[in-house]
Amino acid sequence: MDTKPTEISSSYMFGGYNKRYKHFSPKLGCSMTFHIYFPPSPSSPSHKFPVLYRLSGLTCSDENFIIKSGAQRAASNFGIALIAPDTSPRGLNVEGEADSWDFGVGAGFYLNATQDKWKNWPMYDYVVKELPAFLAENFPQLDTSKVSISGHSMGGHGALTIYLKNLDKYKSVSAFAPIANPINCPWGQKAFTNYLGENRAEWEEYDATCLVSKFNNVPASILIDQGEDDKFLKDQLLPGNFQEACKKYNVPLLLRLHPGYDHSYYFISTFIDDHISHHAQALRL
């Protein structure tokens, strides 16, 4: 078992390196891949880089954000390491895991599945606990005390829920077009029914719009960017519901709506520098 990270690839970019690794995850029971962008190293050998976790959306792997977003330019300027995990376990051959694009492989929804069939889908624990511990043990150049989190679509849902439930772990959060109220949209209802069963109280534990009522001592403003021409806006993403909940519980939120933009990486790459700057400010860089 590859209990230590195995480097798969390395590419030089904006003075730093995109590096892809694989390791065995005891939590998930399979090998997982992840990317790290290491910004240019300063002269001090003891320097540690603050960390921004970036969670991807449905059908994605750890590669999409690293290849398409252009986030490395700003990350290089601010000296932030980018961590891009995969979106689900792979290679477990669970019946039905690849039958649809919005559930199973590539669609872990960053929750801990409670249904026995999907027992190897505890992606919440992987992202919040196992992967950070693995990184701290194997990459001493990362400052695991200075961490923020961001995501897109399903990954935006993951970032928001993980942040709200772990305000002591993360300095800030941002999201592009997040699934902001999954208990009330088809994607979320399908995933939650299969992963969590029929108990809607368990669903609410992974719904950002519900969580703001319980975890509202938010120290930094939440940043969300949403394209107004996103075809998923009205029936799947529901940012207005999250905005209403934040207003009700006095949670600081900056929700920016952008005419003409859709759900794609063209949209993400246009505004990604603002997100890196948002996190740099919270990380006090």
From TrEMBL:
Its EC number is 3.1.2.12. GO terms for molecular function: carboxylic ester hydrolase activity; S-formylglutathione hydrolase activity. It is found in: Cytoplasm. InterPro entries: AB_hydrolase_fold, Esterase-like, S-formylglutathione_hydrol. GO terms for biological process: formaldehyde catabolic process. The keyword Hydrolase applies. NCBIfam families: fghA_ester_D. Belongs to the esterase D family. This is S-formylglutathione hydrolase.
